[in-house]
Amino acid sequence: MKQVKKLPLTDECHHWTRLGEVPWDLQKYWQQRYTIFPYYNEGIYMTEAAWYGVTPEPVANQIAHEHGSIISSSKTTVIDLFAGVGANAISLALATTPDGTTPRWEKVIAIELDPATLACAQHNASLHGVADDIIWVLGDSFKFLETLLGSPEKLENDLQVNVAATALFASPPWGGPGYRTDEIFDLSTMEPYNLATLHEAYRTMDHALYLPRTSDLRQVAKLIPDGTKIEVVQYCVEGASKALVAYIPAAKDEDIRMET
Ligand SMILES: C[S@@+](CC[C@H](N)C(=O)[O-])C[C@H]1O[C@@H](n2cnc3c(N)ncnc32)[C@H](O)[C@@H]1O
Questions:
Q1: How far apart are CA 116 and CA 121, in angstroms?
Q2: Residue 218 domain flag
Q3: Is there a domain that residue 86 lies in?
C-alpha cells in the first residue's frame, strides 16, 4: 500500500453552487453546507455519498482539539482510518499544542478506499493549506493496519511509523438497520464494520471511535476492562448532538492475554 500524492478530481466530485444542480435526495444536506463546511464557497468538493457521512467542520475541529489533549502527548502520529472528503484529517493537521505554537501531530496519515473521495479530500485540504502536511493513502485501512502491526517492512519508509507513538481516529460508515430510527443503536448491526470488527483491529492502540449519537454505550463499556474509565463525548451543533466519540486507550498486554 502506497501514499498517493495528488489524485485528479473526477466526474464523481462536485462543487454544487445552485439547488437545481443537486440531486433531490441530497438537497437537505446541501442546504446545510455552511454548517458542514463554513468555507464551502471557497470551492469545497464532495462526492454524492460523502454528504451522508462527512463530519461537520466545527465538530471535526473540536474533536481534533480534544483528541490532541485526551490522547497522551507521547503519541506524535495520528492515522485517520476513514478519511472521506477530509474534514477530520484537515482538522487533525491544523491542530496545535495548547500554546498554539506547534502542530499537535508530527505526522498525519489519512487513508481512504475510494479514489474520487480521496481526490476531494486532497483538494479540500489544499484549500485549507494542509494538503502537503498529510500523508495520503489510497486503500483499505484494515489491511494497512494489519501490515503496520505484522510486517511493517512491506510499507514504504514514510508509512513505517512507530506504533507505540501512534494514535488512531476512526469515523467508519454507519450503515445498517436502525441507526437513524432506533432510540438506542445496536453497534453490532453497524455495516459494513461493526463494533467488534473495529475493536479487534484497533485494540492494541489508543483510538477514538466516531459513532452515532444514540450508540449503545453498554456495548462500548464492554470493550474495556472492568473499573477502567474512558471519555465519551457528545458533539453538538446548534444544540443538537451530531455524534459521539469514544476515546479508548490501548489494551494492556495482560488484558490481551486474558482475552485470548
Ligand atoms: C463516514 S465516511 C468518513 C467521513 C470523514 N470523516 C469526513 O469527514 O469526510 C467513511 C469513509 O470511509 C471510507 N471507507 C470505507 N471502508 C474503508 C476502508 N476499509 N478503508 C478506508 N476507507 C474506507 C468510505 O469510502 C467513506 O469515504
A1: 9
A2: yes
A3: yes
Alpha-carbon distance 221 to 187, whole Å? 12
Instruction: Specify if 39 maps to a domain.
Output: no
d(CA 118, CA 172): 15
- CATH number of the domain to which 70 belongs: 3.40.50.150
pLDDT in tens, 4-13: 999 999 999 9
Q: How many residues does the chain have?
A: 260
Helices (H), 178-216: 195-202
Residue numbers of the domain that contains 213: 55-259
102 within a domain of the structure (yes/no) = yes
| Structural contact between residues 31 and 37, judged by C-beta atoms closer than 8 angstroms | no
**Predicted confidence (pLDDT) per residue in 186-199, tens digit:** 999 999 999 999 99
The total number of structural domains in the chain stands at: 1
Ligand 1 pocket, mutate which of 113, 120, 138, 146 (most atoms under 8 A from CB): 113
Q: Which three cell numbers stand for residue 112?
A: 481512504
CA distance 57 to 37: 5
Determine the distance separating the centroid of ligand 1 and the alpha carbon of 169, expressed in angstroms.
Answer: 11
